[in-house]
Amino acid sequence: MEKDIFDILDDRSRRVLNAVVCCYIDKPDPVGSRFVTRKYSFGFSPATIRNIMSDLEEMGFLRQPHTSAGRVPTDKGYRFYVDSLSGAGEAGRAPEVTPEFVERFSRRLDAFRNDVSAMYSEVTTTLSTLSNCVSIVLPPKAGNTTFNRIDLIKYRGDQIVALLITDEGIIRNKVLQSDPMITQDDLNRLAGFLNAEFSGHTLDEISQQLLSRLKREKYQWDKLVSRAVSIYEQAMSASQEDIFVAGLYDVMSMPDFSDLSRIKELSKAIKEKHEIIKLLAELSKVDGVQVVIGNENPIEGLKGLSVVTSVYKEGERPMGIIALIGPTRMDYSKTIIMVDTIAKCVSRTFDD
Amino acid sequence: MEKDIFDILDDRSRRVLNAVVCCYIDKPDPVGSRFVTRKYSFGFSPATIRNIMSDLEEMGFLRQPHTSAGRVPTDKGYRFYVDSLSGAGEAGRAPEVTPEFVERFSRRLDAFRNDVSAMYSEVTTTLSTLSNCVSIVLPPKAGNTTFNRIDLIKYRGDQIVALLITDEGIIRNKVLQSDPMITQDDLNRLAGFLNAEFSGHTLDEISQQLLSRLKREKYQWDKLVSRAVSIYEQAMSASQEDIFVAGLYDVMSMPDFSDLSRIKELSKAIKEKHEIIKLLAELSKVDGVQVVIGNENPIEGLKGLSVVTSVYKEGERPMGIIALIGPTRMDYSKTIIMVDTIAKCVSRTFDD
DNA sequence: ATTAGCACTCTCTATCAGTGAGTGCTAATA
DNA sequence: TATTAGCACTCACTGATAGAGAGTGCTAAT
After folding, report:
1. Is the confidence at residue A3, as pLDDT, over 50?
2. Could you say which architecture CATH assigns to the domain B143-236?
3. Does domain B2-84 have CATH number 2.160.20.80?
4. The pLDDT of residue B4
5. Is B114 exposed, middle or buried (0-12, 13-18, 19+ CB in 10 A)?
6. From the candidates B158, B250, B260, which should be mutated to test the interface with A, based on the most A CB atoms within 10 A?
7. Which residue, A267, A236, A298, is CA-closest to A134?
8. What pLDDT is recorded for position A310?
9. What is the CATH number of domain A99-141+241-351?
10. Are B174 and A263 inside 8 Å of each other by CB?
11. For an interface test with A, which of B117, B163, B236, B251 has the most A Cβ atoms less than 10 Å from its Cβ?
12. What is the per-residue pLDDT across A305-331, written as a single tens digit (0 to 9) for each?
């Protein structure tokens, strides 16, 4: 499929197409043939460029907002541009991402090593400030994290506090209702039991296999086991996935969002975040940087926008995904490098 | 001061002023004399109303966007309207806030009794959906909450998890670096010591008095004490106040925000939340509903907007504050009732 | 195959007149 | 004296019109 596109277009057309996309990304006015010849010295006259652009339009890479206006890239045009970007060395662009910046940012992240939430907030605000896009971090799926230990603490009256710690450092605490007669000693016994049974397993394994096995097996009627299981299930209930979002303010300074309705759509999509979560979860199955352009996007309110993502990992294991959402006209070469770099920084932070 | 205003205006002027404010809140078009006479049967001709409106303008309650347009309330006009609102019984307005709604909402909050954060999120989303304003909850100042107990759990290597529980149910956990040789037994001793010393005191008392006394007094050189103090201080460090915000999307549907620049200003103020936090902290010193109108507002980006707040309490003790931020043209009678009602619901939830 | 030339198209801006809602003022009225 | 009817006036808004400017497609020449 991608090969096809490269075959269809000869070298000259490709260069013109990329030039048009670059110009348009640079300034959101339709790009005319004259302008292209002046900015890039192709050695052709505007008329020739016009013919090429006309062909590109027929093939669906460009379109005219109206007769007698310059051309604007279509989603397909952007797609071609992005694909040819990853081929060529796109270094030189994205001057914000200097080695010094990476160094400084990595050190800043280190400070958050004991507080992942704060780290994700830091990542989103930094990314959105630099890119003028909305940035999102999808934290690791809780189910994929590894049970380290649970502690149960008697609080007041019939309440107990459950503290769940995973190997990834993700910590979850919750107040539970329980039998008022239960003592701290009882709780210690229950926690001890759970720790012995579950330690080293992922939360998904626990909820899908271990729990049901425990319920099934011989000590089904054992009071301790049934109590422990019930408490664990309470502690894990209602764990909705959440995302970290920032940059709605920053994205408003992009000229593409000069009308309120687009901002409104985007805000709505963010507010009803489940669709975005679903999309990002899907994207996080693939390694490396991914770009979803305009209508390739399955979410209604996000059509007309593009998403650039990169997975961050602990060692080899993918943990979550970092995303930038912005206009299809975004500076892909810049955002791609940014998301990629930042994701690597995050991965590195998890690694030491 | 307030008395003055009521003295300056005779009954007729007051009624006209309130009519103009009501009309304008209803529909954001300048209100003409004719329109007022038709909508309200004052028994006067438009000419008379014109004279009255002219006086009101001279006194600064109304202004004209341009000659030959109707009148629009000034901040002072809104102020008068709001003040006279709290006098009269404003029942009948705010049809959203039925007893059934309150009942249903209270029950919903009950479900969140063990998870305050989730409750605050629920409050903000509900409020902003109903009011089309941005809604904010300022949680209780950590310093005012009462130490219940701390638990220290050995995690991996040199890390320990500190779990701090307060009487209000606010729970704080943090991963700390510590001496790798320390054992769980040591940690239990340290926690036991802290619990014995601090239980029942507010976090402010602890940090302002108890800690320094501990450091000063005879067992200054005791290893256990110094270790315990150091761990407590680590656990409490960097506790920045945070707020719960929702409704940026909802507020965009108000016609007052049809231009992007105002939304941008508001987003910016929210993004740089410290000023808002400062304002709300100030407002939360006063009991009951408060209304800050337009330029009365000290925050630059919030001038031109109004803030309606109400404190929520546990028993008699004020905990935090609930706020709505919207255009000065907001429906005050509605938002006031809403904020007031919701704050009472929250207080009630804390009480049982 | 490329290019110069030219007529054409379409947006954008400015200008202008007409409309309508609303005002302020004045003189008449209760 | 307070109220009102009448009237001239103001100003935003709308729609039509014209001119400028940028860009195109097509054709004929190179």
Report:
1. no
2. 2-Layer Sandwich (3.30)
3. no
4. 52
5. middle
6. B260
7. A267
8. 98
9. 3.30.450.40
10. no
11. B163
12. 999 999 999 888 899 999 999 999 999
